[in-house]
Amino acid sequence: MDVVSLFSGAGGLDLGFHQQNFNIVWANDFDKFAIQTYNENFSNPATFGDLNEIELDSIPLADVVIGGFPCQPFSMMGHEKGFEDARGTLFFRIVEVINSMSKRGKKPRVLVLENVRTLKTHDKGNTYKVIKNILENELGYKVFTQILNTVNYGIPQTRNRTFIVCFANHDAQYEFPKEVELKLTMQDLLEENVDQKYFLSDKIIPTILSEGTGGYRAKAEIDLPVARPLTATMHKMHRASQDNYVTDNGRIRRLTPREAARLQGFPEEFIIPVSDTQAYRQFGNAVTVAVSNKVAERVKTTLQELGEWN
Ligand SMILES: C[S@@+](CC[C@H](N)C(=O)[O-])C[C@H]1O[C@@H](n2cnc3c(N)ncnc32)[C@H](O)[C@@H]1O
User: Which of ligand 1's atoms lies nearest the C-alpha of 282?
Assistant: First the structure.
Protein backbone atom coordinates (compact mmCIF):
# COMPACT_ATOMS: atom_id res chain seq x y z
CA MET A 1 0.00 0.00 0.00
CA ASP A 2 1.72 3.17 -1.17
CA VAL A 3 1.41 6.18 1.12
CA VAL A 4 1.95 9.88 0.47
CA SER A 5 2.59 11.81 3.67
CA LEU A 6 1.88 15.54 3.80
CA PHE A 7 3.27 17.77 6.60
CA SER A 8 5.39 14.83 7.71
CA GLY A 9 7.39 16.65 10.41
CA ALA A 10 9.71 14.26 12.22
CA GLY A 11 7.50 11.40 11.08
CA GLY A 12 5.33 10.34 14.03
CA LEU A 13 2.28 9.62 11.90
CA ASP A 14 4.48 8.05 9.22
CA LEU A 15 6.24 5.75 11.65
CA GLY A 16 2.98 4.16 12.82
CA PHE A 17 2.01 3.44 9.21
CA HIS A 18 5.50 2.15 8.39
CA GLN A 19 5.33 -0.22 11.38
CA GLN A 20 2.08 -1.61 9.95
CA ASN A 21 3.78 -2.37 6.61
CA PHE A 22 2.50 0.60 4.65
CA ASN A 23 5.05 1.83 2.14
CA ILE A 24 5.72 5.57 2.35
CA VAL A 25 6.66 6.62 -1.16
CA TRP A 26 6.72 10.39 -0.70
CA ALA A 27 6.76 12.73 2.29
CA ASN A 28 7.03 16.49 2.51
CA ASP A 29 7.68 19.30 4.97
CA PHE A 30 8.99 22.85 4.69
CA ASP A 31 10.95 22.75 7.94
CA LYS A 32 14.54 21.83 7.15
CA PHE A 33 15.20 20.53 10.66
CA ALA A 34 12.16 18.25 10.54
CA ILE A 35 13.41 16.96 7.18
CA GLN A 36 16.81 16.33 8.75
CA THR A 37 15.29 14.18 11.49
CA TYR A 38 12.98 12.40 9.05
CA ASN A 39 15.78 11.56 6.65
CA GLU A 40 18.00 10.17 9.40
CA ASN A 41 15.26 7.73 10.34
CA PHE A 42 13.42 6.75 7.17
CA SER A 43 15.02 5.04 4.18
CA ASN A 44 12.90 6.99 1.69
CA PRO A 45 13.90 10.66 2.07
CA ALA A 46 11.28 13.37 2.51
CA THR A 47 11.08 16.23 0.02
CA PHE A 48 11.82 19.69 1.35
CA GLY A 49 9.51 22.49 0.23
CA ASP A 50 6.31 24.46 0.74
CA LEU A 51 3.39 22.25 -0.26
CA ASN A 52 1.67 25.27 -1.77
CA GLU A 53 4.56 25.64 -4.18
CA ILE A 54 5.21 22.02 -5.01
CA GLU A 55 4.01 20.97 -8.48
CA LEU A 56 1.00 18.75 -7.89
CA ASP A 57 2.03 16.49 -10.77
CA SER A 58 5.34 15.78 -9.08
CA ILE A 59 3.62 14.10 -6.12
CA PRO A 60 3.47 10.36 -6.83
CA LEU A 61 0.13 8.54 -6.96
CA ALA A 62 -0.74 6.67 -3.78
CA ASP A 63 -3.32 4.37 -2.20
CA VAL A 64 -3.28 6.29 1.05
CA VAL A 65 -2.70 9.96 1.85
CA ILE A 66 -1.88 10.87 5.45
CA GLY A 67 -1.39 14.29 6.98
CA GLY A 68 -1.52 16.03 10.31
CA PHE A 69 -2.29 19.34 8.75
CA PRO A 70 -1.04 22.37 10.67
CA CYS A 71 -3.28 23.42 13.51
CA GLN A 72 -3.87 27.03 12.59
CA PRO A 73 -6.33 28.45 11.91
CA PHE A 74 -8.16 25.59 13.60
CA SER A 75 -6.19 25.63 16.82
CA MET A 76 -7.46 26.94 20.12
CA MET A 77 -4.06 28.59 20.47
CA GLY A 78 -4.52 30.29 17.08
CA HIS A 79 -6.75 33.25 16.44
CA GLU A 80 -10.09 31.44 16.38
CA LYS A 81 -10.85 33.23 13.14
CA GLY A 82 -12.68 30.56 11.22
CA PHE A 83 -13.09 29.56 7.70
CA GLU A 84 -12.74 32.74 5.66
CA ASP A 85 -9.13 32.73 6.76
CA ALA A 86 -8.75 29.06 6.11
CA ARG A 87 -9.72 29.25 2.45
CA GLY A 88 -6.61 29.04 0.35
CA THR A 89 -4.77 27.40 3.23
CA LEU A 90 -3.47 23.94 3.77
CA PHE A 91 -6.66 21.90 4.09
CA PHE A 92 -7.55 23.16 0.63
CA ARG A 93 -4.11 22.22 -0.62
CA ILE A 94 -4.76 18.66 0.56
CA VAL A 95 -7.97 18.70 -1.48
CA GLU A 96 -5.97 19.82 -4.51
CA VAL A 97 -3.48 16.98 -3.98
CA ILE A 98 -6.33 14.43 -3.92
CA ASN A 99 -7.98 15.96 -6.99
CA SER A 100 -4.69 15.93 -8.85
CA MET A 101 -4.16 12.23 -8.08
CA SER A 102 -7.72 11.43 -9.18
CA LYS A 103 -7.23 13.32 -12.45
CA ARG A 104 -4.05 11.39 -13.07
CA GLY A 105 -5.99 8.13 -12.75
CA LYS A 106 -5.72 7.02 -9.13
CA LYS A 107 -8.00 8.30 -6.41
CA PRO A 108 -6.50 7.39 -3.03
CA ARG A 109 -8.49 4.65 -1.27
CA VAL A 110 -7.87 6.14 2.17
CA LEU A 111 -7.17 9.54 3.71
CA VAL A 112 -6.02 9.88 7.31
CA LEU A 113 -6.06 13.44 8.60
CA GLU A 114 -5.14 14.57 12.09
CA ASN A 115 -5.80 17.83 13.87
CA VAL A 116 -6.30 19.44 17.26
CA ARG A 117 -8.96 18.24 19.67
CA THR A 118 -11.10 21.35 19.15
CA LEU A 119 -11.47 20.89 15.38
CA LYS A 120 -15.06 19.71 15.70
CA THR A 121 -16.22 22.62 17.85
CA HIS A 122 -14.15 25.35 16.22
CA ASP A 123 -16.20 28.29 14.97
CA LYS A 124 -19.37 26.71 16.43
CA GLY A 125 -18.77 23.54 14.45
CA ASN A 126 -18.66 25.34 11.13
CA THR A 127 -15.03 24.56 10.32
CA TYR A 128 -15.54 20.81 10.70
CA LYS A 129 -18.84 20.96 8.84
CA VAL A 130 -17.12 22.50 5.82
CA ILE A 131 -14.24 20.01 5.97
CA LYS A 132 -16.61 17.04 6.23
CA ASN A 133 -18.80 18.36 3.46
CA ILE A 134 -15.83 18.72 1.11
CA LEU A 135 -14.49 15.25 1.97
CA GLU A 136 -17.90 13.65 1.47
CA ASN A 137 -19.53 15.60 -1.30
CA GLU A 138 -16.67 17.08 -3.29
CA LEU A 139 -14.21 14.20 -2.97
CA GLY A 140 -16.74 11.38 -2.44
CA TYR A 141 -15.33 9.73 0.68
CA LYS A 142 -17.06 7.97 3.57
CA VAL A 143 -15.84 9.83 6.66
CA PHE A 144 -15.15 8.54 10.18
CA THR A 145 -14.06 11.00 12.87
CA GLN A 146 -13.02 10.50 16.46
CA ILE A 147 -10.93 12.17 19.15
CA LEU A 148 -8.25 9.81 20.43
CA ASN A 149 -6.27 10.39 23.62
CA THR A 150 -2.68 9.11 23.74
CA VAL A 151 -3.15 7.98 27.36
CA ASN A 152 -5.65 5.39 26.14
CA TYR A 153 -3.05 3.75 23.88
CA GLY A 154 -0.43 2.75 26.44
CA ILE A 155 1.55 5.99 26.66
CA PRO A 156 1.45 8.18 29.81
CA GLN A 157 0.62 11.49 28.15
CA THR A 158 -2.72 13.26 27.93
CA ARG A 159 -2.97 14.24 24.30
CA ASN A 160 -6.33 14.54 22.60
CA ARG A 161 -6.31 14.73 18.84
CA THR A 162 -9.00 14.56 16.19
CA PHE A 163 -8.54 11.81 13.61
CA ILE A 164 -10.48 11.85 10.36
CA VAL A 165 -10.28 8.57 8.43
CA CYS A 166 -11.88 8.50 5.00
CA PHE A 167 -12.53 5.62 2.62
CA ALA A 168 -13.29 5.84 -1.08
CA ASN A 169 -15.23 2.57 -0.79
CA HIS A 170 -18.55 3.29 0.94
CA ASP A 171 -18.82 -0.32 2.16
CA ALA A 172 -16.01 0.45 4.60
CA GLN A 173 -16.88 0.01 8.27
CA TYR A 174 -13.93 1.64 9.96
CA GLU A 175 -13.68 1.19 13.71
CA PHE A 176 -11.28 3.33 15.68
CA PRO A 177 -8.75 1.34 17.71
CA LYS A 178 -9.81 -0.08 21.06
CA GLU A 179 -8.37 1.55 24.15
CA VAL A 180 -5.74 -0.39 26.10
CA GLU A 181 -4.86 -0.38 29.77
CA LEU A 182 -2.10 2.06 30.77
CA LYS A 183 0.77 0.19 32.39
CA LEU A 184 3.40 2.96 32.47
CA THR A 185 3.82 6.26 34.25
CA MET A 186 5.86 9.23 33.09
CA GLN A 187 8.43 8.22 35.71
CA ASP A 188 8.97 4.90 33.91
CA LEU A 189 10.12 6.83 30.84
CA LEU A 190 12.67 9.09 32.52
CA GLU A 191 16.38 8.93 31.77
CA GLU A 192 19.09 8.55 34.38
CA ASN A 193 22.15 10.77 34.79
CA VAL A 194 20.62 13.66 32.93
CA ASP A 195 22.82 16.59 31.85
CA GLN A 196 22.91 19.56 34.24
CA LYS A 197 21.46 21.89 31.59
CA TYR A 198 18.01 20.35 32.04
CA PHE A 199 17.85 21.26 35.75
CA LEU A 200 16.14 24.48 36.84
CA SER A 201 18.26 27.17 38.45
CA ASP A 202 17.23 28.30 41.95
CA LYS A 203 16.45 31.67 40.42
CA ILE A 204 13.86 30.42 37.96
CA ILE A 205 12.09 27.89 40.22
CA PRO A 206 9.68 30.41 41.84
CA THR A 207 8.52 31.61 38.40
CA ILE A 208 8.09 28.10 37.05
CA LEU A 209 6.17 26.95 40.13
CA SER A 210 4.01 30.06 40.48
CA GLU A 211 0.32 29.57 39.88
CA GLY A 212 -0.25 32.79 37.95
CA THR A 213 -2.57 35.60 38.88
CA GLY A 214 -6.23 36.54 38.49
CA GLY A 215 -8.08 34.48 35.90
CA TYR A 216 -4.88 32.74 34.83
CA ARG A 217 -4.39 30.76 38.01
CA ALA A 218 -3.58 27.11 37.41
CA LYS A 219 -2.15 24.42 39.63
CA ALA A 220 1.60 24.04 39.33
CA GLU A 221 1.81 20.29 39.73
CA ILE A 222 5.02 18.52 38.89
CA ASP A 223 5.90 14.80 38.84
CA LEU A 224 2.59 13.90 37.27
CA PRO A 225 2.16 10.19 36.55
CA VAL A 226 0.57 11.06 33.21
CA ALA A 227 2.31 13.90 31.40
CA ARG A 228 0.51 17.02 30.29
CA PRO A 229 0.29 17.45 26.50
CA LEU A 230 3.74 18.01 25.06
CA THR A 231 3.86 21.31 23.20
CA ALA A 232 5.92 22.51 20.27
CA THR A 233 7.27 25.33 22.43
CA MET A 234 8.63 23.23 25.31
CA HIS A 235 12.04 24.85 24.93
CA LYS A 236 10.54 28.10 26.23
CA MET A 237 10.05 26.64 29.71
CA HIS A 238 6.42 27.31 30.45
CA ARG A 239 5.06 27.42 33.97
CA ALA A 240 4.61 24.06 35.64
CA SER A 241 0.85 24.45 35.26
CA GLN A 242 1.28 24.07 31.49
CA ASP A 243 4.35 21.92 31.11
CA ASN A 244 6.10 18.87 32.49
CA TYR A 245 8.71 19.02 35.23
CA VAL A 246 10.09 16.19 37.31
CA THR A 247 12.05 15.81 40.52
CA ASP A 248 15.39 14.13 39.96
CA ASN A 249 17.66 13.47 42.96
CA GLY A 250 15.85 16.18 44.91
CA ARG A 251 16.13 18.79 42.19
CA ILE A 252 13.60 19.92 39.61
CA ARG A 253 14.28 19.58 35.91
CA ARG A 254 12.47 19.66 32.61
CA LEU A 255 12.18 16.73 30.26
CA THR A 256 15.00 15.84 27.90
CA PRO A 257 14.36 15.49 24.14
CA ARG A 258 14.71 11.70 24.48
CA GLU A 259 12.03 11.68 27.19
CA ALA A 260 9.79 13.80 24.95
CA ALA A 261 10.36 11.23 22.18
CA ARG A 262 9.42 8.37 24.55
CA LEU A 263 6.28 10.23 25.66
CA GLN A 264 5.30 10.37 21.99
CA GLY A 265 5.88 6.66 21.47
CA PHE A 266 9.06 6.98 19.39
CA PRO A 267 11.32 3.92 19.77
CA GLU A 268 14.77 4.12 21.40
CA GLU A 269 16.52 3.66 18.07
CA PHE A 270 14.90 6.82 16.69
CA ILE A 271 17.82 9.17 15.99
CA ILE A 272 17.61 12.78 17.21
CA PRO A 273 20.08 14.66 15.00
CA VAL A 274 18.91 18.22 15.75
CA SER A 275 19.27 20.79 18.56
CA ASP A 276 17.15 20.47 21.71
CA THR A 277 14.94 23.37 20.59
CA GLN A 278 14.20 21.70 17.25
CA ALA A 279 13.74 18.30 18.87
CA TYR A 280 11.19 19.64 21.39
CA ARG A 281 9.34 21.34 18.53
CA GLN A 282 9.29 18.18 16.41
CA PHE A 283 8.17 15.85 19.21
CA GLY A 284 5.69 18.44 20.49
CA ASN A 285 4.17 18.58 17.00
CA ALA A 286 4.14 14.86 16.37
CA VAL A 287 1.32 12.38 16.29
CA THR A 288 1.98 9.82 19.03
CA VAL A 289 3.47 6.82 17.25
CA ALA A 290 1.50 4.31 19.34
CA VAL A 291 -1.76 5.99 18.30
CA SER A 292 -0.76 6.25 14.66
CA ASN A 293 0.24 2.58 14.70
CA LYS A 294 -3.19 1.52 16.00
CA VAL A 295 -5.07 3.76 13.56
CA ALA A 296 -2.96 2.31 10.72
CA GLU A 297 -3.62 -1.25 11.92
CA ARG A 298 -7.36 -0.61 11.79
CA VAL A 299 -7.03 0.91 8.30
CA LYS A 300 -5.23 -2.26 7.22
CA THR A 301 -7.95 -4.48 8.73
CA THR A 302 -10.68 -2.47 7.02
CA LEU A 303 -8.91 -2.69 3.65
CA GLN A 304 -8.48 -6.45 4.19
CA GLU A 305 -12.21 -6.77 4.91
CA LEU A 306 -12.91 -4.89 1.66
CA GLY A 307 -10.48 -7.12 -0.24
CA GLU A 308 -8.41 -4.04 -1.07
CA TRP A 309 -5.22 -4.76 0.87
CA ASN A 310 -2.25 -5.58 -1.29
C1 LIG B 1 1.65 19.16 13.29
S2 LIG B 1 3.14 19.04 12.39
C3 LIG B 1 3.05 17.42 11.70
C4 LIG B 1 3.64 16.36 12.57
C5 LIG B 1 3.74 15.00 11.92
N6 LIG B 1 2.47 14.57 11.35
C7 LIG B 1 4.24 13.96 12.91
O8 LIG B 1 3.45 13.08 13.27
O9 LIG B 1 5.41 14.01 13.32
C10 LIG B 1 2.81 20.04 10.98
C11 LIG B 1 3.98 20.16 10.01
O12 LIG B 1 3.54 20.88 8.86
C13 LIG B 1 4.65 21.57 8.32
N14 LIG B 1 4.14 22.59 7.42
C15 LIG B 1 3.38 23.67 7.73
N16 LIG B 1 3.08 24.37 6.64
C17 LIG B 1 3.65 23.72 5.58
C18 LIG B 1 3.69 23.97 4.18
N19 LIG B 1 3.09 25.03 3.65
N20 LIG B 1 4.35 23.08 3.40
C21 LIG B 1 4.96 22.02 3.93
N22 LIG B 1 4.97 21.73 5.26
C23 LIG B 1 4.33 22.60 6.07
C24 LIG B 1 5.37 22.08 9.56
O25 LIG B 1 6.73 22.37 9.28
C26 LIG B 1 5.19 20.92 10.54
O27 LIG B 1 6.31 20.06 10.55
Answer: 9
Most ligand 1 atoms within 8 A of CB, residue of 18, 30, 157, 287 to mutate: 30
Cβ of 302: how many Cβ atoms within 10 Å? 22
222 with 252: CB under 8 angstroms? yes
Check: CB of residue 2 under 8 Å from CB of residue 25.
yes
C-beta atoms surrounding 165 within 10 Å? 25
Residues 292-310 pLDDT 10s: 999 999 999 999 999 999 8
Give the H/E segment covering residue 129.
Answer: helix 126-133
**Residues 113 and 67: beta-carbon distance below 8 Å:** yes
Q: Of 13, 106, 24, which Cα lies nearest the Cα of 57?
A: 106
CA dist 72 and 89 (Å) reads 9
Q: Which amino acid is at 239?
A: R
- Which tens digits make up the pLDDT trace of 57-110? 999 999 999 999 875 554 444 444 555 555 557 888 999 999 999 999 999 999
